[in-house]
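hey so u asked for the seq, here:
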Amino acid sequence: MTAHQSDLIASDIEAYLHEHEHKSLLRFITCGSVDDGKSTLIGRLLYESQMVFEDQLAALHVDSKTAGTQGGELDLALLVDGLAAEREQGITIDVAYRFFSTEKRKFIVADTPGHEQYTRNMVTGASTADLAIILVDARKGVLTQTRRHSFLVSLLGIRKIVLAVNKIDAVDYSEEVVAAIDADYRAFAAGIGLHDITTIPTSALKGDNVLVSSANTPWYDGPTLLGHLEVVENDSALQAGPFRMPVQWVSRPDLDFRGFAGQIAGGIVRPGDQVRVLPSGRVSTVARIVTMDGDLDEAVALQSVTLTLTDEVDISRGDVLAAADDAPAVADQFDATIIWMGEQDLRPGRPYLLKIGARTVTATVGTPDHKVDVNTMEQQPATTLSLNEIGACRVSLDRAVPFDPYTTNRDMGGFILIDRLTNNTVGAGLLQSAVRRADNVHWQATDVDKAAHGVLKGQKPCVLWFTGVPSSGKSTVANLVEKQLHAQGRHTYLLDGDNIRHGLSKDLGFTPEDRVENIRRVGEVARLMVDAGLIVLVTLVSPYKAERDLVRNRLDEGEFFEIFVDAPLAVVQERDPKGLYKRAQRGEAVGVTGVDSPYEAPENPELRLPTAELSPEAASAKVLSMLTDVGIVTA
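ran it, structure tokens below
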């Protein structure tokens, strides 16, 4: 079989480049259990396809003697396993992407790790793949990790499977062994929705049935691995589906041109087609399909283009252009499957950033309905998700977004979760459906709003959020502030953290998840009181910056004042009016902020009160002065 090398390279380089540019592209992954030969198989494909440069080959010979696992012989796995830890242990840890091509097709292959602890890496590699090669060691058969990776492949929407029964040289090229593994795997795969399976007996080490049919398997009359990869059809469902294009950029090179650039996520578009802009719902008509090489008569899924419209429509990055007569749904609450990738557990109720397409919004994730044991496929009860765990969760957004179910369109239904503080990706999600009850919940307009309530009371409503470690003086200062405001005739309410625990949050403990939910509840009550025109004083430890920011973001500009009641740990331990720190030191109390639970101090509070230096009266005077300065009350 002729590989990437072509006579056109020497005779007509432009013709070669044109031919190469227009080859179809297949993205695939290799996965399976540890030491099934995934890296060796990819190395074999690269080596036999003549995609290894001379200096790489020379280095491979040297590395094979020092870090190889083949007794000094050429170890093709080292072409892929590049990390030092991978070479030391002889395993794959990170996802390795490699490109190669033949005369018929271009390929991007992801070598994904086999260890359970690197499941998130495997998910990353599978998220963009069209096909999965599931390797099974002929000596061991279908293992737990084989099932785990097959389940993840199915979950991520890959439907074309190559079952590579590898290391058949180690079982004397037995037809019976391959047939038994094939039957075992198909019985399992049918239960998770995998039916398009091609079984190929291979030896990545020896090269049997990888590029050339092996004389050692006369009983096998199917394709070689590369032969199958060259002709397998790419899933055309995207082009057959309705038109979708998330807008990634609004192009305004001059006053006479306004185009909307992005990669088409589904369907076909032509000039003259009507499109709907989501989430606004406005309808317009495609005028031109613009590319660097000139205008097109049509564009299809996965092409990157710029569209111009016949009307002046307000469109921003993150909006979606869709077929006017077959537009996606728009919703702000979803049922989703989440694959957790964060080192810290999921905290239900905590705000995360959610990125779907080109749009980033704030999201909260509810307590999982269940998590899936990827070894047995059983659903288990769960209160959170840990690293590499998969669960079904309710996701709520701060605004509605257009979407398709992940099973219909991966680009329109897939999302990632990002930690707001570290900016790390902590989860990958698959939208299943909108929460239908959200369709029946709408904002009811009222004529008497919070501004009217505030005018009647002669004040501007707001929230004074007192935060600090226990015994720092929050309640003492807030109580003095409310007394003085009440004496002035102001309308106030004090939501004290301890008092809240007797009613509104009686069912909550002091786990990180319960703390998040407590703050969410208090924040929602405070927001309702602001709508009633009140000055609301809240005294909560509220140790996490993300939750304090969540409350701030639920209010209008100028309505939230973070007051940091700052006292050193030594001072609050000496005060300890409730004996909390003493109980913690005796081991009788756990989850005490400042002892065995963290406190994230405000970085830029509206007011800082160093209560080790200020008396309660002096601290309350500073709060009242601030309220006058910003116009909440008049002197």
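The longest strand covers residues 390-403. The two ends are 89 Å apart (CA to CA).
lmk if thats what u needed
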